[in-house]
Amino acid sequence: MRKAQGTDKGVWGERAIVRILLNLYAERGGILIHSYEYQTDPTKNGNIKNHDGQLYLERLGDSTEIDVLYVTQYRVFPIEIKSYLANEIRLTTEGISGCATTEKSPIHQNEMHCNHLYSAIWEAIEADPTFIIPIVAFSTWENKPIIYDNRSEGEREYIHVCNTNTVYETVKQLDTPNHKRIDLDVIDRLLKRKRISSDAYYPVSWRK
Asked: What is the pLDDT of residue 172?
C-alpha cells in the first residue's frame, strides 16, 4: 500500500475529502474507509492504460486500492481522488489530458476498482451492480483545475465527476434508495474479509 507522506498533495487531497465525508457519515451513518487496500479477483482485468497512443490492459497484482470508500444503507461509493497541478483538465472516453503525463485515466482506474470490489461484496448487494456508484473527485486549489468532461452521456451517468467543493452534495444527491437497503453488518464483514490494510476505517454506524 502507498504510505501517506506529509508533503504528498495527493494524500492531503484524500484527507480533505475524508474530512468532508465524515459529515455525511455523522448524518447518515454507514462505513467510511480511507485507503482501502483489498484482494483482487484474478478473473478480472487490470487498468486500461495508454502508452504512446495505444490502449492496453495492465496485468494486475494481488491487491488494489480505493482512495475513499463510503458505504451507506442505500449505495456503495468507491471514490478515486486526483490532485493534479493544472489549469484545465479534459476527460474523454480514451483518457485524460491537460495534466502531467499519465498512462491511466482515473475514470478507467475507478471502473477497474468497481469490478474487483463487486466480486468482494456481491452477496451484500444481491448481485446488483447498480448499488455501486463510482465517483472521481479532483482536488481543487483556488478553483483550479477546471474540468471539461467530454465523455458520452452514458459514461457521465455511470462514473460521476466532482471536486473538493462539490463532493459532499454529489454523494448526498446520489445516495438514493434502491429496491432494498444494504445490510451494513453483512457488507462490513465482506469488506474486512478482503481487506489487506487501510489508513482509517470508520465502523458501521446506523442512522436514518
From this structure: 97
